Amino acid sequence: MRILILGGSQFLGRAVASHACAAGHDVICAARGLAGPIAAGARFIQIDRDVTNGLAPLAGQTFDAVVDVSRHPGQVRRAVAALKRPGVHWTFVSTISVYADNRVPGQRADTAPLREPAAGDPEHSTDAIYGAAKIACEQAVGNDAFICRAGLIAGPQDPTGRFAYWPTRLARGGEVLAPGSPDDAVQFIDVRDLAQWIVHAAEVRLTGIYDGIGPIRRRGELLADCAGALNASCTFTWIDHAFLEAHDVRRWAGPRSLPLWLPLPDFAGFMSRDTSPAREAGLISRPPADTARDTLHWLRSSDGPVVGLTADEERAVLSAWHAREAAATGT
């Protein structure tokens, strides 16, 4: 097949291009510039999706499949108008942030309530309207495409540094601050597994809306499995959400955060979605221990980004927790 990836030089786009090239497909990556090297075997064409005729360098070319990861409705509308033709398989990578209800576990892509699309006709998305803008993008693509609503994407070459916090922290060993309960649900997807599924979807011409996330795992088992894969000796101190928030430990990503952590019950459904339809449609997830080990190897070889609590911040929170426990027991 001849596959066009709108982007293709960073994280998921690069992983899709790499897998497609390895599978023997003819791959073109089209973007305004290179965020990083494109996959070996792919070709790069420079375009500018923010201007009316910015896709002109692709004029006259034909493709069997198109993969778009944009978050900007204007870019998606222009791509659909210029490139979407009968017989062209279209993949749009959306997000589980499109869902309106994050509290109820076990929701499915085909029945879960959605946010309202971004108001008006926004050209670009911001973090504040990310989910709503992705809904507007989905509507521009239409219902004859493969719409993959991704969860947290993890693995080597992750520019966000979110999942990377955990293999980095676990590799240091010792007492590890663990948020919430060992039984809390956690979901993510290795970028390589998601990329393989996206290429598979194009090959079999899969259409419909799916949640592209791995199976539900329990936080305690996940951390223990990852620590074991890294040959790290760890003990876990589980600290409740109220205490963490009282000590300015932030959720999900960024400075002073614990990645992969969201307060319950408000987000009980965010990382416990029913993704069995995706698995039935060919999504395969590798063991999280493999993701942790490969991510740590990449971090050490490339000095990749890591976000979250610093070692000093973690020690301070643990010290405050133990002081409270000692005061409560009189020891």
Description:
- This protein is of the alpha/beta class and 331 residues long.
- It folds into two domains: 2-156 and 189-212, Rossmann fold (3-Layer(aba) Sandwich), CATH 3.40.50.720; 165-186 and 217-271 and 287-329, no CATH class.
- 34% of the residues lie in helices and 19% in strands.
- It has ten helices and 15 strands.
- It has helices at residues 11-22, 73-83, 130-141, 165-172, 191-204, 219-229, 241-246, 276-280, 288-302, 311-329; strands at 2-6, 26-31, 43-46, 65-68, 89-95, 146-150, 153-154, 174-179, 185-186, 189-190, 208-212, 217-218, 234-239, 250-252, 257-259.
- The protein has a seven-stranded parallel sheet with strand order 3-2-1-4-5-6-11, with helices on both faces. The chain has a two-stranded parallel ribbon with strand order 7-10. The protein has a two-stranded parallel sheet with strand order 8-13.
- Strand 1, helix 1 and strand 2 (26-31) form a beta-alpha-beta unit.
- Helix 4 (165-172) crosses helix 9 (288-302) and helix 6 packs across helix 9.
- The protein is globular, with a radius of gyration of 21 Å.
Write a short abstract of this structure.
The chain is built from 10 helices and 15 strands.
